[in-house]
Amino acid sequence: MLIIFDCDGVLVDTEPVSNRCFSEALNREGLAWDVPETMRRLLGRSLKSCIAIAEAELGRALPPGFVDRLQADTFAAFKRERVGAVPGVGAAIDTLEAAGHRTCVASSGDLGKMRITLGGAGLWDRFEGRIFSATQVERGKPFPDLFLLAAREMGTTPDLCVVVEDAVAGTQAAVAAGMRVLCYAGAPYADRDGLVTAGGHLFDDMRTLPTLIG
Ligand SMILES: [Mg+2]
Predict the structure, then answer these.
(1) Selected catalytic residue, list 6, 8, 166, 191
(2) pLDDT tens-digit profile of 147-191?
(3) What is the pLDDT of residue 96?
(4) Considering just the CA atoms, what is the radius of gyration of the chain in Å?
C-alpha cells in the first residue's frame, strides 16, 4: 500500500499555532473569528482557498502584504514555540515501512512551510522527494486533485492508497479520490462528527495506525 500522510495535524502539531495566527490577522482586519471558528472554516484548506473564504466573508479583498505578514508571523511562532511531531507518528511510520508499505506527504501547505514544520520535527529528510503540495494542483482539498497527483507520482492507483487525514476538507478530498481514509482525531479540536459525515474512519492514537492499515 501507499500511505499518504496529510502534514498539518497528522505529522506535525501545527494547527493550534497557525489558526491562532490566522485568527489574530483576521481580527486586525475586522473579521471577528476566534480560534475555534477559524478552525471550523479553514482547517485543512490551502492558503489560497483560506484567503478566498475570508475575503468572501469580509466582502472585500484583504490588503496587499496580508499573506506575507501572516506567513512571517506564523513561521516565527512555529520556531519560537517549537512545534513538533504528533505523538507516536514517527514510530508508526517506522512500523509501516518495515511492513513494506510506502509513504508520502500530501499537504495543503506549501513546501516552504513544510520545510520548517517537518524539518523542526525531524521528518523532512525521511520524506524528501515524496512531499506533494496543493501549490502543484489547480484545485486544493476538498477536491481530489492533490491525492490523485501523489498516487500518480508514486506510480500507483487510488485503490492501493490509504490517506491519513485530520480535517474534513482533506477527508472529503480522499473520498473523492476513491481512497480509503483514516482520520486522526486525537487532537482536542478534532471535528469528530464532521469527519465521520465526510466518510472517515476515526482513530485517536497514532500507535494504533499500523494495525488499522494492516
Ligand atoms: Mg491536516
Answers:
(1) 6
(2) 999 999 999 999 999 999 999 999 999 999 999 999 999 999 999
(3) 98
(4) 16
d(CA 213, ligand 1 centre) in Å: 19
pLDDT tens digits along 101-122: 999 999 999 999 999 999 999 9
Ligand 1 centroid distance, CA of 44 (Å): 5
Which amino acid is located at 205 in the chain? D
Ion ligand 1 nearby residues (CB, 5 A): 6, 8-9, 44, 166-167
Q: Report the alpha-carbon distance of residue 121 to residue 182 in Å, rounded.
A: 22
SS3 of the chain: the string is CEEEECCECCCECCHHHHHHHHHHHHHHCCCCCCHHHHHHHHCCCCHHHHHHHHHHHHCCCCCCCHHHHHHHHHHHHHHHCCCCECCCHHHHHHHHHHCCCEEEEEECCCHHHHHHHHHHCCCHHHHCCCEEEHHHCCCCCCCCHHHHHHHHHCCCCHHHEEEEECCHHHHHHHHHCCCEEEEECCCCCCCHHHHHHHCCEEECCHHHHHHHHC
CA 8 – ligand 1 centroid, Å: 4
Sign of CA dihedral 120, 125, 130, 136: positive
Q: Mean pLDDT of all residues in the chain? A: 97
Phi, psi of 206 (to 5 degrees): -60, -25
Q: How far is the CA of 172 from the centre of ligand 1 (A)?
A: 12
